[in-house]
Amino acid sequence: MFRLLTLRRLPVRFAHIAPLAGVLLLAACEHRGPSTPELGPLATLVVTPNPQVLAAGGVQQFTATGYDADGNVLTLGSTTWSVVAGGGTINASGVFTAGAAAGVFANTVRALSGTVSGLATVSVTAGAVASIRVTPNPVSLATGATAQFTATGRDAGGNIVAVSPTWSVVNAAAGAIDGVGLFTAGTTPGTYAKTVVARSGTLADSATVTALVAAGALATIIIAPNPASLAVSGIQQFTASGRDANGLVVPIPGSVTWSVVNGGGTINGGSGLFVAGATPGTYSNTVRASNGTITAFATVTVVGAAGPLASIIIAPNPATMLVNATQQFTATGLDANGVVVPISPAVVWSVVNGGGTINGASGLFTAGAVAGSFPNTVRASSGSVSGFASVTVTVVGTGALATITVTPDPASLDVNTTQQFTATGRDVNGVIVPIIPAPNWSVVNGGGTINSGSGLFTAGATTGSFTNTVRATSGAISGFADVTVTGSSSVGPPLGAAAAFAVLGSTAVSCTGVSNIAGDVGVAPAGSVSGFPAPCTISSPGAPVPHVNDAAATTAQADVTPAYNALAAMACGTALTGQDLGGMTLAPGVYCFTSSAQLTGILTLAGPANGLWVFQVATALTTGTSSQVVMSGGGQVKNVFWQVGSSATIGQTTAFQGNIIAAVSVTLVQGASLHGRALSKAGVTMDTNLITLP
Question: What is the value of pTM for the model shown?
Answer without folding.
Answer: 0.38
